[in-house]
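## Example pair
The file below holds two records. Each record gives the amino-acid sequence first, followed by its structure token line.
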Amino acid sequence: MAQKYINDGYLVVPEIFDQDTVENIQAEIPKFRDGTYPIQDPLDLVDKDSGLLAVHFPHWVSRPIFETLGHPKIKEVLQIIVGAHIPHWDGRVKCMQSMLFLKPPGFPGQAWHQDERFIPTRDRSLVGVWIALDDATLDNGCLRVIPGSHKMGQLWPTRPHNETEEFDLSDESYGFNSDNEEIVEVKAGSAVFFNGYLLHRSLRNSGDTSRRALVHHYMNSWSNLPWQIGADRLVDAATYDHRMIVPIVGDDPYPERGIEASPDEVFIRPWGDDMEWGDWDA
């Protein structure tokens, strides 16, 4: 398992969640639209005709989703792969983000990108755990990856794209060869673990069923987390440590820094015909 992850940059693990867990998470989804959970919606789009493409940080408000962060089967894999490339790693893992992708029929995917661009680590330990809540198929826009694209630790340049029928508003990575792209179809309850430098994307949902997925991001607890830094602030990015984290395996190695409380509301990513470039910083 560790060697495949080191070589390919991703790993498919079937049956991470049983059917009951999948259904419990599915039951949480309506609560992000019916007022059960507080949301940040500065464009006031959730009550319009725009559909809901994704929810950012659902674990901040949903207890069932929070409890999946440290799911035993997820922890088992993370303890093997997060620091498999680090000679003296002691097994500690922390989580800093969750995302709930809903992707109804007709909704777009996301162009080639690398998660490390948004969640930087200093030791290449970022791991995304993409858990299918529905069968993810070629028709409904499953993940696509470029095996081995993580190896050099290169962050590729990005640019806006003009394929708005296929992808959401976020820009695309470019400059690489994508001939060895692999399509990753998985059953509901299965998970794709992938490195933060791995190039991946998904296409529009051209099927007639939603492609819902829960995504968590983890990293070596010893690595600082210099993300969500405003452009108007000058900080030491090598030591800055965003502390809105959840220790998953082992203790927090920096207890003196404390852990920030979550804002107790989620961010939503709507989608619809009224969305324009610049509306939403994805």
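Second record, same layout:
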Amino acid sequence: MKDNPIALVVSDVDGTLLTSSKTLSPRNRAAVLMLATRNIPFTIISSRPPFGLRMLIEPLNLRLPMAAFNGAALVTPELSLIARQPLGSDPARRALACFEEFGLDAWLFTEDHWHIRNPNGPYVELEIRTVQTPPTIVDNFAPLYERALKIVGVSSDFDRLGLCAAKAKRELEGIATVSRSQPYYLDVTAPQLDKGVALGELARRQGIDLAGVVTLGDMENDVPMFRRSGFSVAMGNGSPAAREAASVVTSSNDADGFAEAIERYILPRAPIA
């Protein structure tokens, strides 16, 4: 990327921009705001739902479209929907059957709600704190299949979730995208859709060459955007796949690795306004 000017910085949220306690550190916030002073646009691609990005818009002064659900929804900074790609009934049903086989809890997200069947399941309280929105409890997901933008398998048994991920990728190949957004979350979204596709669409809408894009992330679902961007940064807490795919590895999300990367790799190459 050294021959290309930095035209855009795109970050994952959880495990990257935020700490493990789901907070935005003062140093990371300052790093994003410093990008603006150097005329470098910044936006987000996250597995979160659109409403789970709301609390970041004002502190980071976000002004560009963002991607939620790993790209299944594109939204404005006002959270108005630009585009959406539903999962579809058959992939939804088959994903949930796979989760049930491996004993995973399941969550179903539409563009404006998240639905669960087990309010006492693992990580429910964490997700409430994360997206700052309570779930809707339902008895049956079937009436929601057509509206589903993301289905998540949830487990505190990371190895079991990994086995489910392997089977789901085989069984849903060509009809859904399957990836881990956290060690404890397995995301299922529409086919031929990932953060790399979302990155391409966001860059296209801004008229930006992908060679001039810097991406930051920590998990398997960030790898597709790493592969399409000119320069990529994995967090020190990142998965082996993310660290291997990235151009460089920075410190962990709890040690302000995001800000460290901005300060070390991006700001020195940006013109002073």
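Notes on the second record: The first strand starts at residue 8 and ends at 11. The chain is about 35% helix and 20% strand.
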